[in-house]
Amino acid sequence: MPADWSRDAPDLMIALDRTGIPLALQIQEQLRVAIREGRLLAGERLPSTRRLADHLGVSRGTVVEVYEQLVAEGYVDSAVGSGTRVARLPGVERRDRTEAPPAEAARPKFEIDFE
C-alpha cells in the first residue's frame, strides 16, 4: 500500500486482469465478494476515488463508476464529506474487527472423559 494510504481505509486486495473483462466490472465484483464474505465490514470506510484509482493504476472515472454502481446496488453508502462506507446488508454477519469471537466458537467441538 502507498505510504499515504488512509488509516481508516481497509487493506483492499484487488487483482486486475488487464486483458479481459472491463476493469470496472472486475473491481465491482471483488468489492461485492469482500462485502458479502465479511472481509469489509459494515461502516468501514473505503478509500477515496483518487486514492483507489492511484493504487490500482486505473482512471478515477473508473473508480467513480464502480462506487456509483455499488451505491445503486446497496453495497455501499456515499455522502459528500464523509466518504464511501460499506452498507449493512441483511443476512451478512457483521462483527467489529476488535470484537472477540462468539463464546461458542472458542469451545472445543468434542469432550473427552478420561475416567
Kindly describe this structure:
The protein is mainly alpha-helical and 115 residues long. The chain has one domain (23-106): Winged helix-like DNA-binding domain superfamily/Winged helix DNA-binding domain (Arc Repressor Mutant, subunit A, Orthogonal Bundle), CATH 1.10.10.10. 35% of the residues lie in helices and 7% in strands. The protein has four helices and two strands. The protein has helices spanning 23-36, 49-56, 60-73, 103-106; strands at 76-79, 83-86. Strands 1-2 form a two-stranded antiparallel sheet. Strand 1 and strand 2 (83-86) form a beta hairpin. Helix 1 (23-36) crosses helix 3 (60-73) and helix 2 (49-56) crosses helix 3. It is globular and about 70 Å long.
The overall pLDDT average reads 81
Q: H/E element string? A: HHHEEH
- How many strands, what sense, and barrel or not for the largest sheet? 2 strands, antiparallel
CATH architecture assignment name: Orthogonal Bundle
Order of strands across the main sheet: 1-2
Q: Number of DSSP strands?
A: 2
Global geometry: globular
Task: Outline the fold blueprint.
Blueprint: H1 23-36, H2 49-56, H3 60-73, E1 76-79, E2 83-86, H4 103-106
Antiparallel strand pairs: 1-2
Helix pairs in contact: 1-3, 2-3
Which terms would index this structure?
single chain; 115 residues; mainly alpha; Arc Repressor Mutant, subunit A; two-stranded antiparallel ribbon; 4 helices; globular; disordered N terminus
Concise structural overview:
This protein has 115 residues and is mostly helical. Helix content is 35%, strand content 7%. It has four helices and two strands.
